[in-house]
Amino acid sequence: MSALAQLDDAGDGHDGAALWAALRGGGGQEARERLVALHLEFARIMAGRLFARRTYAGLEFDDYLQFAREGLLGAIDRYDATRDAGFRTFAAPRINGAILSGIQSYSDMQEQIATRKRVVAERVRELREEAPEGRDANALFSHLAELAVGLAVGFVLDQSGMYRAEEAGYADNTYAAVEMRQLRERVRAMLVELPERQRQILSYHYLQQQSFGEIAALLALSKARISQLHKEALTALRESLRGGGVDYSF
Q1: Of 156, 153, 121, whose CA–CA distance to 235 is shortest?
Q2: Could you give the CA distance from residue 244 to residue 238 in angstroms, rounded to a whole number?
Q3: If pLDDT is split at 50, 70 and 90, which confidence band does 86 have?
Q4: Looking at the domain assignment, is residue 124 inside a domain?
Q5: Is 99 in the same domain as 13?
Q6: 74 shares a domain with 144
Q7: Do 39 and 90 fall within a single domain?
Q8: Bigger pLDDT: 202 vs 197
Q9: Residue 180: inside a domain, yes or no?
């Protein structure tokens, strides 16, 4: 048995055994909370060991401890004192796995956020570069409206990809949320109806978060051509949405 597990298979002694019996015998939340308290220091030590060897600087020790608590709770819910080894022997790999999974999930999320910021910044830059020259107020207003429309449609497409509300941990059944889900479904259906090149560009850009430069290399087209096809595709989507009663007139 590892030195870490030996720290309290004392926690599997008389008091621990009584708590496990109470939990499995219907003792419910009170027994569970007492078991968490009994083994929390063990989870803290495991979190501390991984934190000391950390290679990713984006998380604090409290984040590691939170992941360890989640692993501890999962282990308590799955442990069978009549069949499994001592609890801490059973819990150690589960707490360790919960911490590592939490770190990976956070790292992936931060990478997605950074990628999305980069793609959105490029999207704004591409749209702004099409601003009309001179001081024609009507032309400028029209361009600003088109810029807003492009960003709005882009937002809907983004939400139908990596950042989908239906993947949240709870259901949002408000009227606005239901409308947004319906709109996303319509946009997904409209994507299928676009010409192949336009569909590819929107899918790569909004659903896979690839930049125009990356898409240009992938499709063997110029970046300017990708930008043009992107604009044409957004225009087609906007007109389809307007024809279906969705107002993007701003």
Answers
A1: 153
A2: 10
A3: confident
A4: no
A5: yes
A6: no
A7: yes
A8: 197
A9: yes
Amino acid in the structure at residue 11: G
Domain co-membership, 148 together with 224: yes
CATH code (residue 191): 1.20.140.160
Lowest mean pLDDT among 80-84, 129-133, 210-214, 222-226: 129-133
16: pLDDT strictly greater than 90? no
Amino acid at 246: V
132: left (phi over 0), alpha (psi -120 to 50) or beta: beta
Q: Which residue has the higher pLDDT, 44 or 161?
A: 44
Rounded alpha-carbon distances, angstroms, from residue 86 to 11, 35, 191: 9, 13, 55
Please tell me whether residues 156 and 102 are part of one structural domain.
no
Give the torsion sign (CA, 91, 97, 100, 101): negative
Residue 36 belongs to what domain range?
3-107
Question: Could you give the number of structural domains in the chain?
Answer: 2
| 69 part of a folded domain | yes
What percent of the chain is predicted at pLDDT more than 90? 17
Length of the chain: 250
Burial of 152 (0-12, 13-18, 19+ CB in 10 A): middle
Q: Name which residue leads in pLDDT, 227 or 16.
A: 227
